[in-house]
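TA notes, week 10

Several of you asked for a full example with nothing omitted. So below is the full record: structure tokens for the whole chain, then the designed sequence directly under it. When grading your own attempts, check the secondary structure regions first.
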């Protein structure tokens, strides 16, 4: 199983001969409030032949209508059930909506939708294949359901947002450490690092390196791997 950071929350998971893409986002500009920090490592065209797409929620930096329209009509796009209609409006065709703790078996790959908490309808996902378990958190705050996820799954890897802005949209360093304590993953890869507020007043000094140091100071038995665009981790 191999994981490649494409950029922001877009991660390519290669397992059992299949390619899974999380929260596709390929815009180079961002929006009026947030700018893209670095371009994605691969283009829409290079990834349009993936076998499965996971969508945690429908915010601009997690869904790419041009990418959805480029997918073959039979490629499954797994999304939260309550907002799957929005994913369809954005161009995805073969949308599979999952509720909390619902499971979808796609060949040898098992996908479980797990709880998440954000300012919109959202889900996390646990992908199981080749005897490994990967937790993709999408955008979420720390909540007690993470302890339940940690009890249900032996996580080899967690893809988690671990920095925040002045208006918190994801976990900051402190709450991400709490999440690691509850989830007990072997490895954590910080995500949601590909955009930045255009206004300096909206930025904080929190960083993935700061999160890694807090994990060490807390005595947590976890490896924090910071992947830049195009870098790969063999799970």
């Amino acid at each position: 199983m191999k994981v490649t950071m494409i950029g922001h929350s877009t991660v390519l998971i290669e397992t059992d001969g299949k390619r899974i893409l999380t929260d596709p986002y390929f815009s180079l500009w961002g929006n009026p409030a947030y700018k893209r920090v670095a371009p994605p490592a691969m283009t829409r065209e290079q990834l349009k032949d993936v076998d499965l797409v996971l969508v945690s929620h429908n915010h601009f930096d997690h869904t790419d209508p041009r990418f959805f329209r480029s997918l073959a009509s039979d490629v499954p796009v797994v999304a939260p059930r309550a907002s799957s209609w929005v994913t369809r409006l954005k161009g995805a065709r073969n949308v599979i909506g999952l509720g909390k703790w619902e499971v979808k078996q796609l060949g040898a790959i098992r996908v479980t939708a797990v709880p998440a908490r954000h300012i919109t309808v959202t889900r996390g996902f646990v992908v199981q294949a080749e005897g490994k378990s990967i937790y993709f958190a999408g955008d979420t705050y720390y909540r007690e359901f993470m302890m339940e996820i940690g009890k249900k799954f032996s996580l080899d890897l967690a893809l988690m947002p671990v920095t925040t802005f002045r208006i918190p949209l994801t976990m900051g360093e402190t709450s991400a450490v709490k999440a690691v304590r509850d989830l007990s993953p072997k490895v954590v890869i910080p995500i949601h690092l590909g955009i930045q507020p255009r206004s300096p007043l909206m930025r904080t000094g929190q960083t993935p390196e700061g999160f890694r140091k807090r994990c060490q100071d807390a005595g947590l038995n976890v490896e924090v791997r910071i992947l830049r665009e195009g870098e790969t981790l063999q799970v």
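The chain has a mean pLDDT of 97. Use that as a sanity check on your answer.
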